[in-house]
Specification:
This protein is α/β, with parallel strands linked by helices. It contains twelve helices and eight strands.
Length: 317
């Protein structure tokens, strides 16, 4: 039977926290749910792109764990930032070195578009995503980015897959914007941290959304202007995300604590958290599939009736 009802998958942004998407997808795969369209923002576009080219969640998990042991990641600035965020440097000499490296990175942000180099995220993307166009994915895929000049949302439906994901993943301030067709593009999460609305606009009838951004919680005291600026962004993002999630039929929200977006050290735990959160929603997903099947039946019945009526009119004519 031809499938008429489309299920969309909306994957949110959150850096390393996005590894939880993989755990949730393992459950979705086991339930036999195959999305008809995948839409991703930021890290959600990296994971979503990998799923869209046909990589199963189980295989993607193995590739991620392999990547985190590869020299590409071990020698990257991304890992250095994650280590600094966790305070992994214990010896005094290393703590001093880490302190000055952090100050230098922040200073770079004053004179150039991003604290990190584009290659730091390009290497991650290239490790998982082949050099193909979006139109060539096995499952229809969309990456969401933000046009910094116009302030508008950009949805990539065609063109180089890697380039679209790079634009969607360019965290403002941390990574340089990406220039495509005269536009200066940055992280899609500026506008839509979980692109559930885009999934609907792109033809999905039902949407499963996975949100992996940090909960708002109670913040500590603020000491600097940077502390206030970061907190303001967290508050804004929280309310934008909750508004966006109203478009989803099912929301999976893994409990990821305060894991920083650069901290990939607990990859296995992040994946497990995503799996656990999806398991809690299995009954809801099964109800959604039943609803989709009923929808298919009604559409098919309506088409059949329409065909009979048309034949009767032709006969009477």
């Amino acid at each position: 039977m031809k499938k008429t009802t489309k299920i969309g998958l909306a994957l949110g942004g959150g850096g390393a926290r996005g590894l939880a998407h993989i755990g949730s997808m393992k459950v979705i795969d086991r339930e036999g749910i195959r999305p008809d369209i995948i839409v991703g923002t930021s890290m959600g576009s990296v994971v979503g792109g990998a799923l869209a080219i046909g990589i199963k969640a189980e295989e993607l998990e193995k590739r991620v764990l392999s990547f985190l042991q590869d020299d590409i990641y071990e020698s990257s600035e991304l890992k250095a930032l994650g280590d600094a965020e966790r305070g992994i440097e214990q010896r005094l000499s290393r703590r001093i070195q880490c302190y000055f490296q952090t100050k230098i990175r922040l200073a770079h942000g004053i004179y150039r578009p991003g604290i990190l180099e584009t290659k730091d995220i390009e290497e991650l993307i290239d490790y998982f995503i082949p050099d193909i166009n979006i139109e060539e994915t096995v499952i229809p895929f969309r990456a969401v980015a933000t046009d910094l000049r116009s302030g508008k949302l950009v949805v990539f439906r065609e063109g180089p897959l890697r380039r679209a994901i790079l634009a969607s993943s360019s965290v403002p301030g941390m990574l340089p914007f990406v220039e495509i067709d005269g536009r200066q593009l940055s992280d899609g999460a500026i506008i839509q941290s979980v692109p559930a609305r885009v999934a609907l606009e792109e033809g999905a009838d039902f949407v499963i959304a996975i949100a992996i951004d940090r909960d708002l919680g109670l913040a500590p005291h603020f000491h600097t202007a940077l502390d206030v600026y970061i907190r303001a962004g967290e508050i804004q993002g929280y309310y934008l995300e909750n508004h966006e999630l109203k478009c989803a039929d099912i929301v999976i929200k893994p409990k990821l604590g305060s894991t920083h977006w650069t901290d990939f050290s607990n990859a296995q735990e992040l994946i497990h958290s995503g799996e656990s959160a999806a398991m809690d929603m299995v009954s809801d997903m099964r109800r959604l599939i039943k609803k989709a099947h009923r929808w298919n039946f009604l559409v098919k019945a309506a088409r059949k009736i329409k065909g009979i009526v048309s034949m009767e009119k032709q006969g009477n004519g």
